[in-house]
Amino acid sequence: MTARTLFEKLWSAHLVRELDGDSALIAVDRVFLHERTGSVALKSLAQSARRLVDPSRVFCTMDHIVDTRPGRGDDTLLPGGRAFVSETRAAARAVGIRLFDVNDPLQGIVHVISPELGIVLPGATVVCPDSHTCTQGALGAFAWGIGSTEAEHALATGTLRVKKPKTMRVRFEGVRSSFVTAKDLAIALIARFGSVGGNGYAVEFAGAAVEALDIEERLTLCNMATEFSAVTGFIAPDDKTFDYLIGRPYAPRGSDWERALHAWRALRSDAGAVFDREIVIDVSALAPMVTWGTSPQHAVPVSGVVPAESESGTSAESYQRALHYMGLSSGIPLRDLEIGAAFIGSCTNSRLSDLRRAAEVLRGRRVASGVRAICVPGSMSVKRAAESEGLDKVFLDAGFEWRESGCSMCFFAGGESIGAKQRVISSTNRNFESRQGPETRTHIASPETVAASAVMGRIAGADQLPAQVRAS
Amino acid sequence: MTEPVRQLIAVAAPLIRANVDTDAIIPSREMKTVSKTGLADGLFAGWRYTAIGSREPNPSFVLNQIAYAKAQILLGGENFGCGSSREHAVWALHEFGIRTVIAPSFAPIFFGNCVRNGIVPVRLAAAAIQDIASWVGIDPQAHRVKVDVEALQVAAGEGVNWRFELDTESREMLLEGLDAIDLTLRNKPDIDAFLERDRIVRPWIYRLSEHT
Ligand code: SF4
């Protein structure tokens, strides 16, 4: 038998039939919706005379525009936000799907709760009208973001028409130094190979440094496959994956679990399998990263400087626009940049281990004066777990706001924002123009870098913190 | 069901910037209701108007210039439509009148959304797009660009042609204005057969209940 890549195995296990060209009809195991883009799909389905094929495999959450301030209800700071919430609720109830509503104890960001509840499984296909669905590939699933019309298609047919992507393997080899996180791996990859480097590919992350990541770190790495323009990112499941999933609310039980486990163990690329492209990155040479511009590929080590145009890996037009937007010029050390805000949250970095690592940096320290600092746990389960360990106290004592879960200010929905021309260090995934609010200047980095920067009042890596704080 | 697109001869407006993301195309604040319509006014709002929330046209933005009035083609930069999956970006472009976007590369979700809504995503080399923009710039209203989905060709002036590639499925859907759901439902017997087999092979996918 010819050696096959993991992607080929995932693809053929869901192949309903080939279509013209290199497309195929692919069976969809799980559909997740949210109030921002999923509500339109539900509404459109209701307006057509079509039926939702299997409500038991469709889920919906309120995460994008739901308020995250303590004591929230259906109201949001977004004008008309309340209508979104109530329309989504009505539409979800009408078709009888499980909705993680505003005050549900399991509510949270879709890509945080789907793994946490065992809804995404190894070997499954998962779609959501949300570009960061690739996050869930970390458990060995084929998970990808789609549009609302495609979501309606998946609801009405249980399938999608998909153009077969090419395959790429990105191997992270070597041992990373402490302070280098999964987030830094993702940013370093995109900085080196560009924000279109993965275009057209399904990307398998592999290698010793990926095997060494725990599941939450793997979710962070796969999260940013979309910033690499990949169709999806995923990692072969292993014992860590199975240990993570067992006993989760929607994970299989009993004999189903045993049978599933047996099947899941075959989910890996065979030795000798050929990829259309292969990239190897030595993680021992990597340092904590931060972005300086308006694309995730505009990134350098935290200890670096804003590059010259010739070294920026970006076109003259895009370079100049980015500098102008960010209020920077070539040669400025990132560490000299004062920040107005620090944000820890989002489907990239808002899980319990992220909060633990940030809290480690913050313990016994205070956010610099004049810096607004916000922490938004990725789900209500994460929030409760963090509170039971006293992490909320660490954040609050340091001067952070402690929020209810949701996407919050990862993006600007039209309500709350970080503020025009405010420089923010953020554990999110996108530093696009106005992503966190009109004219907001976003620098993305790991949660520990965000925490350290909040304390210093300017961009700083966690490794620089102790000496500098003692000195001041 | 969308309108079929076979051939288009139209004014082309250059917006050649890398990484034009879907939030720039339609800012989230402009998506005011659970709806696919009422979005054209918010198209490129951050660039098109002088201030957030204002409706005063920014004269330097290309779509506000008389020379590019009624543009139905956009000339874009690399990684066009990156970022959020929001299909509202494509609905807004379509409602505004755009029927083709020509760019060196597209974000994958945006590409699929275009095809499903009757907008032709054309991939051409950056140099070719520059050439087209220069030619158009001489007299945008007279120098109209031709996009032929049947022949998979773009023409900018007599005998100046570029070929582009489009997968068969996308091409058919654009040419016929097909609704993908109707198309797929013709394969219902295949879907049912798959499910019948798969329920035996992977029962755990289908037996879902919430344990707390
Ligand atoms: S946290 Fe941010 S990136 Fe993630 S789903 Fe929400 S808005 Fe999108």
Key attributes of the depicted protein:
heterodimer, A: about 475 residues, alpha/beta, Aconitase, domain 3, 5-stranded parallel β-sheet, 16 helices, B: about 210 residues, Aconitase, domain 4, 2 domains, 4-stranded antiparallel β-sheet, 4-stranded parallel β-sheet, 8 strands, about 35% helix, globular, binds iron/sulfur cluster
Instruction: List unreliable stretches of 5+ residues of chain B.
Output: none
CA(first)-CA(last) distance of chain A:
65 Å
Strands side by side in the biggest sheet of chain A: 5-4-3-6-7
In percent, how much strand structure appears in the residues of chain B?
Answer: 5-15%
Query: For the report, how would you describe the main beta sheet of chain A?
Result: 5 strands, parallel
CATH topology of the domain at 291-470 in chain A: Aconitase, domain 3
Strand content of chain A: 15-25%
What does this structure look like?
The complex is a heterodimer of chains A (about 475) and B (about 210). Chain A is an alpha/beta fold and about 475 residues long. Chain A is built from 16 helices and 19 strands. Chain A has helices at about 5-15, 40-45, 80-95, 110-115, 150-155, 180-195, 210, 215-225, 240-245, 255-265, 315-325, 350-360, 380-390, 390-400, 445-455, 465-470, and strands spanning about 15-20, 25, 30-35, 60, 100, 125-130, 140-145, 160-165, 165-175, 200-205, 230-235, 275-280, 290, 300, 340-345, 370-375, 400, 425, 440-445. In chain A, helix 12 (about 350-360) links the parallel strand 15 and strand 16. Chain A is globular and about 55 Å long. Residues about 470 of chain A have low confidence and may be disordered. Chain B is of the alpha/beta class and about 210 residues long. Chain B has helices at about 20-25, 45-50, 90-95, 110-115, 125-140, 170-175, 180-185, 190-200, 205, and strands at about 5-10, 10-15, 75, 100-105, 120-125, 145-150, 155, 160-165. Chain B is globular. The N and C termini of chain B lie far apart (about 45 Å). The chains are: A alpha/beta (about 475), B alpha/beta (about 210). The structure holds iron/sulfur cluster. Iron/sulfur cluster binds near residues 63, 64, 109, 111 and 132 of chain A.
